[in-house]
């Protein structure tokens, strides 16, 4: 199943928002992550909302693990990220699996299910630069 990858970027004072529609697959998300880091650095922000709820596909447990491993190499620890997904895109094992792995590696991330909660979380994250996960 091939879906064109599209990213729409908007700028707020302290963060950028990326709305992504395309493949919810490992390679596509690794590529998106690298682009998001570049865009955030170009805009001089310390937060990003990434809306993946319009993407199509599934990630296996090993894909989620690999995604965090790729973040370790390319994602700056100061860059907070609220990730919006559909509930069907999550894997809930002792909290959200990907989120727990990312948090354990020192990343400031949060899985959210809507724009309003993502915006609230990212504003708190960029203003305090310390966030605790709900999970």
Mind explaining what this structure looks like?
By secondary structure, this protein is α/β, with parallel strands linked by helices. It has a single domain (6-128), classed as STAS domain (Transcription Regulator spoIIAA). Helix 1 (26-43) runs parallel beside helix 2 and helix 2 (61-74) packs parallel to helix 3. It has a five-stranded mixed β-sheet, sandwiched between helices. It has helices at 26-43, 61-74, 97-104, 115-128; strands at residues 6-11, 15-21, 47-51, 80-84, 109-112.
What's the arrangement of strands in the largest beta sheet?
1-2-3-4-5
Radius of gyration: 13 Å
The proportion of strand residues reads 15-25%
The number of helical segments is 4
Helix/strand-derived category reads alpha/beta
Helix content: 40-55%
Mean pLDDT across all amino acids? 87
Outline:
This protein has 135 residues and is of the alpha/beta class. The chain has 4 helices and 5 strands, in the order E-E-H-E-H-E-H-E-H.
Keywords:
135 residues, alpha/beta, Transcription Regulator spoIIAA, 5-stranded mixed β-sheet, disordered C terminus
What topology does this entry show?
Layout: E1 6-11, E2 15-21, H1 26-43, E3 47-51, H2 61-74, E4 80-84, H3 97-104, E5 109-112, H4 115-128
Parallel strand pairs: 2-3, 3-4, 4-5
Antiparallel strand pairs: 1-2
Helix pairs in contact: 1-2, 2-3
């Amino acid at each position: 199943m091939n879906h064109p990858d599209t990213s729409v970027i908007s700028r707020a004072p302290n963060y950028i928002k990326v709305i992504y529609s395309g493949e919810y697959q490992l390679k596509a998300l690794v590529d998106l992550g690298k682009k998001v880091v570049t865009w955030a650095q170009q805009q001089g922000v310390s937060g990003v909302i990434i809306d993946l709820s319009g993407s199509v596909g599934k990630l296996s447990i090993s894909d989620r693990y690999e995604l965090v491993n790729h973040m370790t190499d390319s994602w700056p620890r100061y860059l907070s990220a609220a990730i919006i997904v559909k509930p069907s895109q999550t894997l809930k094992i002792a909290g959200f699996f990907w989120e727990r792995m990312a948090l354990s590696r020192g990343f400031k991330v949060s899985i959210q299910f809507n724009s309003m909660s993502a915006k609230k979380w990212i504003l708190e994250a960029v203003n305090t630069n310390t966030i605790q996960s709900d999970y």
